[in-house]
């Protein structure tokens, strides 16, 4: 296992129990989505994965070794586990895009020419190469988000942890980031872990879904599995993807013989509709 | 042009003007040497030449927008005009050029006072144009790198780097909070406006603390260990340009020395 969380709890100094005995593990190359309402503990959990927060009880194993919190171990961990914050303004601090992206590689002790190369490549991957010399305050929110991603990519991590990567992005921006992430996962085998409450995005991205509620890990499974359990989804104050909801209504109100594994995405819905049409009239050519 | 707008415009200009890619060392050398000559010149010739050449460089060669330059120039010009008026009317000794008998004292305007006032005006305008030359053609990023190379203490450079970046973030936050207050009628009436301003300032202070905290966390997450390392990619300074500036400066100094004893008025 790449990461293994054992009885992880975190209590903030003001007394809030933000994480309550979470047990979870995930393997290399997985795409994991943490789904939960605001205040369900998603961000707190993510913050444990590269040592920003330390568990108040329980422990975290990374490649079967418990995390250590001395400066050297943290640097090693952070080299391998990149973290992208929700607000790119928190992350972009340098006066130009290029210098910001170079911050990580230089901290890893790379010589300038190697760092520069890493920066160029990372900016190319996120499609921001032509903005290298611009200061961050010239960029749009979506562009800043991509630069923040480049800043982490330039460190060549194995795992990328993201807090709400698609929040505040327009539809195009959301879809761009999503494709970029899937590309990174496929091409470079990056393990991706993101926290979100964008339920429509989850099935497009994740192969594993974890639902958090009030600091507890409610359940883990594939998106298909979990979203088919509509009662559970409602209990934790979430909802199904819109398209799934439509099929649920068609099934319940119109007694359509929809597959019990409800479609989650447009392409799955399309298949299901064609299947239903075919059952209705097998002689028509769809 | 609003005030917060002007900062952004200057910043944008520094990154986009035609001299943006020239060596910052060259630009700093030019601006500083001309500035020193301008303020120490006793005749008008050097400041006028300096003002004319920096203005020409800025507007014609660097393609800085005329409107922006004039807008910037208006503030110091206004201030210096006031001061020079004061100098002309109340300073100086020796030969008087006007005497006005007021009921309670005799007000004398001296020739040397007027001369000093005119000289001051041109010296300041010359110096100010040098500063604007630097500000409008050199990005803050380049300045930081130059400072670092000049062995200015790291703490100072790193602090200014962070301050520079977050000025723009906080400017945006301030703008938003200000609008939010306006929309809920926080600016109706002087007292309410003062109260709103106080609230805004207090809130902004807390926001900066939080922002600092979050940025620090984010920097740690990318392996920050107490030192900000940057790529020092800078265009080299051209020897020809440096030599040209040196000749220009020398000519100015000669001009200053030759015209030293020619009175201003």
Please provide a written account of the structure:
The complex is a heterodimer of chains A (286) and B (265). Chain A has helices at 42-49, 71-80, 88-91, 97-107, 112-125, 141-153, 171-188, 202-205, 223-228, 230-235, 242-253, 266-280, and strands at residues 3-11, 17-26, 31-35, 57-62, 65-66, 81-84, 159-163, 191-196, 208-213, 216-221. In chain A, helix 4 crosses helix 5 (112-125), helix 4 runs parallel beside helix 6 and helix 5 crosses helix 6 (141-153). Chain A has 286 residues and is α/β, with parallel strands linked by helices. In chain A, strand 4 (57-62) and strand 5 form a beta hairpin. Chain A has a six-stranded mixed β-sheet, with helices on both faces. In chain A, strands 2-1-4-5 form a four-stranded antiparallel β-sheet, covered by helices on one side. Chain A has two domains: 3-239, 3-Layer(aba) Sandwich (Rossmann fold); 241-286, no CATH class. Chain B has 265 residues and is mainly alpha-helical. Chain B folds into two domains: 1-138 and 235-265, no CATH class; 153-232, no CATH class. Helices cover 73% and strands 4% of the residues of chain B. Chain B has helices at residues 3-16, 24-40, 45-61, 66-90, 111-137, 140-149, 154-183, 190-221, 239-259, and strands at residues 96-101, 106-110. A two-stranded antiparallel ribbon of chain B has the order 1-2. In chain B, helix 2 runs parallel beside helix 9 (239-259) and helix 3 (45-61) packs parallel to helix 5 (111-137). The interface between A and B is large, with 40 and 34 residues.
Cα(first) to Cα(last) distance of chain B is 38 Å
The averaged pLDDT of chain A comes out at: 91
**H/E series of chain A:** EEEHEEHEHHHHEHEHEEHHHH
**Tell me about the biggest sheet of chain B?**
2 strands, antiparallel
Q: Give me the Rg of chain A, rounded.
A: 21 Å
Determine and state the CATH class of the largest domain in chain A: Alpha Beta
Give the strand content of chain B.
Answer: under 5%
- For this structure, the CATH topology of the largest domain in chain A is Rossmann fold
Oligomer: heterodimer
**Total number of helical segments of chain A?**
12
List low-confidence stretches of chain A.
Answer: none
């Amino acid at each position: 296992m790449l990461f293994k969380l054992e009885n992880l709890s975190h209590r903030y100094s003001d007394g809030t129990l933000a994480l309550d005995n979470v047990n979870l593990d995930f393997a290399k190359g997985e795409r994991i989505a943490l789904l939960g309402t605001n205040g369900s503990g998603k961000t707190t959990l993510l913050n444990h994965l590269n040592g920003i927060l330390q568990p108040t009880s329980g422990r975290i194993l990374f490649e079967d070794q418990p995390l250590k919190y001395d400066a050297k171990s943290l640097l090693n961990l952070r080299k391998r586990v990149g973290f992208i914050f929700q607000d790119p303004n928190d992350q972009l601090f340098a006066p130009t895009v290029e210098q910001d992206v170079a911050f990580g590689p230089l901290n890893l002790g790379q010589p300038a020419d190697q760092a520069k190369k890493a920066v160029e490549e990372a900016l190319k991957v996120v499609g921001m190469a032509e903005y290298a010399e611009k200061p961050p305050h010239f960029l749009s929110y979506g562009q800043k988000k991509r630069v923040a991603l480049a800043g982490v990519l330039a460190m060549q991590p194995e795992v990328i942890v993201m807090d709400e990567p698609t929040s505040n992005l327009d539809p195009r921006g959301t879809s761009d980031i999503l494709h970029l992430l899937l590309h990174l996962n496929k091409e470079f085998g990056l393990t991706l872990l993101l926290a979100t409450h964008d339920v429509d995005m989850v099935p497009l991205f994740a192969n594993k879904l974890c639902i958090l509620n009030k600091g507890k890990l409610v359940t883990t499974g594939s998106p298909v599995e979990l979203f088919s359990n509509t009662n559970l989804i409602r209990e934790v104050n979430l909802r199904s993807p819109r398209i799934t909801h439509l099929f649920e209504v068609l099934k319940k109100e119109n007694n359509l013989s929809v597959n019990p594994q409800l479609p989650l995405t447009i392409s799955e819905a399309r298949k299901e509709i064609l299947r239903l049409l075919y059952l209705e009239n097998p002689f028509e050519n769809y | 042009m609003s005030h917060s707008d002007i900062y952004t415009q200057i910043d944008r200009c520094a990154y986009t003007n035609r001299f943006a890619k020239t060596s910052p060392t060259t630009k700093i050398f030019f601006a500083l040497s001309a500035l020193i000559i301008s303020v120490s010149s006793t005749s008008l010739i050097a400041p006028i030449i300096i003002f004319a050449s920096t203005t020409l460089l800025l507007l014609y060669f660097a393609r800085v927008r005329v409107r922006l330059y004039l807008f910037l120039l208006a503030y110091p010009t206004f201030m210096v005009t006031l001061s020079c008026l004061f100098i002309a009317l109340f300073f100086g000794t020796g030969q008087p050029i006007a005497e006005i008998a007021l009921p309670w004292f005799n007000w004398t305007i001296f020739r040397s006072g007027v001369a000093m006032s005119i000289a001051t005006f041109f010296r300041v305008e010359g110096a100010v144009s040098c500063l604007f030359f630097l500000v409008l053609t050199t990005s803050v990023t380049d300045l930081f790198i130059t400072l670092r190379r000049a062995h200015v203490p790291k703490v100072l450079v790193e602090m200014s780097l962070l301050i520079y970046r977050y000025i723009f973030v906080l400017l945006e936050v301030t703008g938003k909070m200000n609008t939010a207050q306006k929309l809920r009628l926080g600016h109706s009436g002087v007292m309410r406006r003062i109260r709103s301003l106080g609230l805004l300032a207090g809130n902004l202070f807390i926001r900066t603390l939080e922002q600092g905290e979050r940025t620090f966390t984010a920097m740690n997450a990318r392996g920050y260990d107490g030192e900000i390392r940057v790529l020092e990619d800078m265009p080299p300074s051209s020897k020809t340009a440096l030599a040209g500036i040196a000749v220009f400066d020398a000519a100015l100094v000669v001009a200053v020395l030759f015209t030293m004893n020619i009175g201003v008025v």
